[in-house]
Amino acid sequence: MSVKLTTRQVGDVIVIDAVGRITLGEGASTFRDTIRDLAASGHKKMLLNLGEVSYIDSSGIGEMVSGFTTVANQGGSVKLLNLTKRVKDLLQITKLYTVFEVFEDEAAAVRSFA
Amino acid sequence: MANNEAAEARTVDQVLDSTLDSVDSAEEVVLREAQELGFDEDDLHRIGMSVRECMVNAVVHGNRYNARKKVRLTVSRTADRLTVVIGDEGEGFDIAALPDPLANENLLRHSGRGILLIQAFMDEFQIRAREPKGTEVKMVKYVAKAS
Asked: How far is A96 from chain B (nearest CA, A)?
């Protein structure tokens, strides 16, 4: 199973609910295209909900980082919500916990964009 | 005990095409052997991900999807360890020349984290040049160290 991404608006924050695997191939490219499309349409506050993501490989991590820099370069930010233990471990190993803001509570995450 | 260990010893050897489908099939083959050795879910995830990262390196960066070049996968299991060897027919590379993915100036790079993850997830990681050309990676996970 590749990744399925659905978006919803919470205030002025776009929440991206991801389900499945973000790995090299269809999963990573779907993820990349979604973030780029949202950024191109003017969204600057993105909250990526990874609670239902079972697997991210280094390509998926790369797309997360690229999405982060794309949005940051446009004056926005991408924050992460509901990380599984495995994804948390990946952020620890890669030191990306120093890059991404991570939340376990959606309301708190949305408020943090204010 | 010795007989049991001998009965458990097994080697699977495959020659795979340079495609992303081979990444999936290699992961399946290795995980099947790893499950037989009794690794838990977390270790199976780490092993599977290490195999994926290594196979992607071989298919994408080593063989560059070249249909004439193959990837050699060897999975060996004994009572105490799982050994995976993956070899490509690419131009090879100098691991020492790779940018450090943990250096602050490299944290936002798009790629370059695969080997870091393999080293974090497996108990042993060795890389060497193949003759006449290519790269071979050997990864070991010990059953006794399985958490």
From this structure: 7
* Domain B2-142, second-level architecture: 2-Layer Sandwich (3.30)
The CATH number of the structural domain formed by A4-112 is 3.30.750.24
Strands A77-81 and A102-103, by their bridges, are parallel
pTM of the predicted model as reported, rounded to 2 decimal places: 0.91
Phi, psi dihedral angles at A102 (to 5 degrees): -120, 135
Question: Looking at this predicted complex, what is its ipTM?
Answer: 0.90
Please give, rounded to a whole number of angstroms, the shortest distance from the CA of A15 to a CA of chain B. Answer: 22
**pLDDT, tens only, B92-121:** 988 889 999 999 999 999 999 999 999 999
A72–chain B Cβ distance below 8 A for any pair: no
- What is the Cβ-side half-sphere exposure of residue B115, based on CA atoms within 13 angstroms? 20
